[in-house]
Design brief:
This protein has six helices and no strands. Helix content is 67%, strand content 0%.
Length: 144
């Protein structure tokens, strides 16, 4: 990523994932982890070095401070690709919708963010408990 840039690197690995489909589960897991790391790095950079409290469902993590960061855009690209191709695990797909919603809220895309959160929690049987907890808390705050 340092040599070619984040966008070129992400495009290359998405292309590799598409070539290997459907037996690309390990690569897709790595892409998901890369997206989460990009969000963590961005959060840390823009929040005075603090931890990503949202990840741990801490109250301060729900206080959305909007900012723009190319790392978030890159993470969103990865999550959009992965969620569009996740057909087996609805809970994982809804988790990716939740995190994409969070990214959109951070970047000021409130309508898209809210829609993604609604999608992530619309069927509680198809959502991880943490996705439901965080999603419901964000929706409560957005609907004030």
């Amino acid at each position: 990523m340092k040599d070619k840039g984040t966008d070129v690197t992400i495009a290359r690995y998405i292309s590799e994932s598409e070539k290997l489909a459907p037996q690309n589960e390990k690569l897709n897991s790595a892409l998901l982890e890369a997206a989460l790391q990009l969000i963590k790095y961005s959060w840390n950079e823009h929040n005075d070095g603090s931890s990503w409290d949202y990840w741990f469902s801490k109250p301060k993590g729900y206080d959305i401070k909007q900012y723009q960061d190319s790392k978030l855009t890159s993470a969103e690209t990865l999550l959009a690709y992965l969620s569009a191709h996740e057909n087996k695990d609805a809970k994982l797909r809804n988790f990716m919708y939740e995190i994409s919603g969070f990214i959109n809220l951070l970047q000021g895309n409130t309508i898209i963010g809210k829609d993604l959160y609604l999608k992530s929690i619309s069927n509680p049987d198809e959502a991880y408990p943490v996705t439901l907890t965080r999603g419901n808390e964000i929706m409560k705050r957005l609907n004030k």
